[in-house]
């Protein structure tokens, strides 16, 4: 029964509109995450300065 | 029946049930209410620039971005909760959720994630007073205004207007780490400007609000009472707009601009007050609605210009 259900879920086909919408959302999420990473990276460097790199390892 | 045949017959039936979204990135951007966001960004920027502290462009940009995303998040939460009434009004029926392009859960999830991200970013990278104020603003708009006041009382936008009035306070707090009388005056200007601005809109869109069952002032107290209240609010907001000059926070240049804009606002409100009850075109209300946007933009632009000149003078540039 569960095998049948998996088979059934895997066969859901996206329409062209759904596929385009998903791609558009994926690109937007990627851009959003990249911006967030850059903001936190730059802000961390700016906030703590070069001392951030000279900590004991 | 083979598995292939079974699949072929089942797929078309389950497509909509499993909730496959057709919402594009553009639909999610629409959830952020970009036009409202632009006003939020502008007023927050003025609060940030007017603060008497050294300007840090990086953290100012992070603060403004966080405030913008926070404002957008509250817009998304509003569209999630209000989808049932949005589909009844011509102005809002094409929004992603009521139009059926997006599932309600998507809007809710998007709003919650952005709320969390914006508050944490502002708190961690700028300061926690600003982060806390932003969190309160989102809560106030999404819960106090949208879920409670909007469908309950004709004073909905009077009290709910506080949510739109907070951005300059958040901007000021982001720059200084405190809340001062100057930022409270900026708050008061937007807070008192909101009722006449929205009631002018509600006058010529009262059919929309009535269909949706929202107790806006014209539907509850009547048009005559609304026109009077609009006029009274403009009589209050116009002097408050001049207060930064009176208290010495801004120059006479700002005072002149604020006085002229205040006089214009009262003039247009007088036109609405004198509007004939039989007037269904409501041109004076439409004109006043347009001028109210110009008023708020003009007041804050003048305050920003004044702050920039003061900064340049202090830096010896002029």
Automatic annotation (TrEMBL), chain A:
Keyword Transmembrane: yes
Keywords recorded for this protein, A-Z: Membrane, Transmembrane, Transmembrane helix
Transmembrane segments: 27-48
Superkingdom as given in the UniProt entry: Bacteria
Name by which UniProt lists this protein: CoxF protein
Organism: Tianweitania aestuarii
TrEMBL record, chain B:
Catalytic reaction equation(s): heme b + (2E,6E)-farnesyl diphosphate + H2O = Fe(II)-heme o + diphosphate
Membrane topology: Multi-pass membrane protein
Transmembrane segments: 36-53, 59-81, 102-122, 128-149, 156-175, 181-204, 225-246, 252-273, 293-314
Annotated Pfam families: UbiA
InterPro entries, A to Z: Protohaem_IX_farnesylTrfase, UbiA_prenyltransferase, UbiA_prenylTrfase_CS, UbiA_sf
Keywords: Cell membrane, Heme biosynthesis, Membrane, Transferase, Transmembrane, Transmembrane helix
The protein's enzyme class: transferase
Miscellaneous comment in the UniProt entry for this protein: Carbon 2 of the heme B porphyrin ring is defined according to the Fischer nomenclature.
Family stated for the protein in its record: Belongs to the UbiA prenyltransferase family. Protoheme IX farnesyltransferase subfamily.
Protein name per UniProt: Protoheme IX farnesyltransferase
């Amino acid at each position: 029964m569960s095998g049948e259900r998996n088979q059934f879920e895997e066969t859901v086909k996206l329409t062209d509109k759904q596929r385009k919408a998903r791609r558009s959302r994926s690109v937007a999420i990627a851009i959003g995450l990249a911006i967030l990473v850059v903001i936190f990276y730059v802000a961390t460097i700016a906030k703590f300065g070069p001392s951030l790199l000279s900590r004991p390892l | 029946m083979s598995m292939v045949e079974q699949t072929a017959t089942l797929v078309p039936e389950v497509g909509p049930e499993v909730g496959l979204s057709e919402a594009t990135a553009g639909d999610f951007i629409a959830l952020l209410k970009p036009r409202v966001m632009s006003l939020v960004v502008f007023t927050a920027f003025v609060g940030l620039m007017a603060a008497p502290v050294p300007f840090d462009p990086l953290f100012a940009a992070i603060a403004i971005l966080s405030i913008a995303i926070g404002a957008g998040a509250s817009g998304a939460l509003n569209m999630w909760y209000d989808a049932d009434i949005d589909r009844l009004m011509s102005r809002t029926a094409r929004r992603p959720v009521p139009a059926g392009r997006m599932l309600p859960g998507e809007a809710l999830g998007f709003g919650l994630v952005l709320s969390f991200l914006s508050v944490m970013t502002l708190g961690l990278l700028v300061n926690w007073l600003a982060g806390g104020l932003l969190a309160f603003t989102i809560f106030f708009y999404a819960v106090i205004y949208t879920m409670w006041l909007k469908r309950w009382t004709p004073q909905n936008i009077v009290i709910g207007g506080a949510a739109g009035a907070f951005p300059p306070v958040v901007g000021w707090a982001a720059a200084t780490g405190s809340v001062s009388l100057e930022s409270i005056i900026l708050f008061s200007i937007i807070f008192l400007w909101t009722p006449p601005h929205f009631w002018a809109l509600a006058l010529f869109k009262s059919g929309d609000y009535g269909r949706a069952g929202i107790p806006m002032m014209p539907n509850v107290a009547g048009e005559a009472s609304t026109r009077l209240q609009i006029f009274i609010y403009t009589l209050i907001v116009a002097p408050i707009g001049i207060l930064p000059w009176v208290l010495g926070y801004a120059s006479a240049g700002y005072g002149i601009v604020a006085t002229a804009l205040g006089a214009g606002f009262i003039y247009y409100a007088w036109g609405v007050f004198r509007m004939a009850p039989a007037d269904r075109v409501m041109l004076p209300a439409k004109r006043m609605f347009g001028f109210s946007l110009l008023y708020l933009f003009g007041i804050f632009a003048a305050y920003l210009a004044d702050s920039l000149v003061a900064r340049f003078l202090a830096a010896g540039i002029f």
